[in-house]
Amino acid sequence: MADDDQSGIPKPKRKKEDAELDMTAMIDVTFLLLAFFVVVSKMDPQKTIDLPVASVTFNVPEKNCVVMVATADSSTETFKVYKGSSMNEADLIPLQDPDLLEEEVGAYVEDEFTRNPTKEAVLIKGEGDVRTGLIEMIKRGVNLSELAKTRKIHVAVEEK
After folding, report:
1. Is the dihedral of CA 149, 141, 52, 128 positive or negative?
2. How confident is the model at residue 160 (pLDDT cuts 50, 70, 90)?
3. Assessment of whether the complete model's pTM goes beyond 0.85
């Protein structure tokens, strides 16, 4: 009668299994939260990155390419895209509307390949502060040109 209390009812013995917690519900909640944040999160396509240094170098001669230059002014956070490598204000493409930029780039590339069919590629030169989203917009504009679809697009990087 050592296990009986004063009322005469024996105490139930605890099983070792009851002491463990079932983690299935916690795991389900964790994966649901993970899936939620993956779905609702947005990547910032305008994120500025430094251009990598080229590890394998081969020169792309400008004379064989349709050249475009993208520059950035970090103090005013403005970007400019020029037709050709001269960076003259007359060759500046307006950046007010991304669709307009893509159309202007496509028309410029189409015109250059029509006038110079021996050109082999498109070369996009971008300063280090130019955002990747701008380079992608230029590339989409290049792909609007039917003559550019069979040619390569090169993005300039710094050579060691």
Report:
1. positive
2. very low
3. no
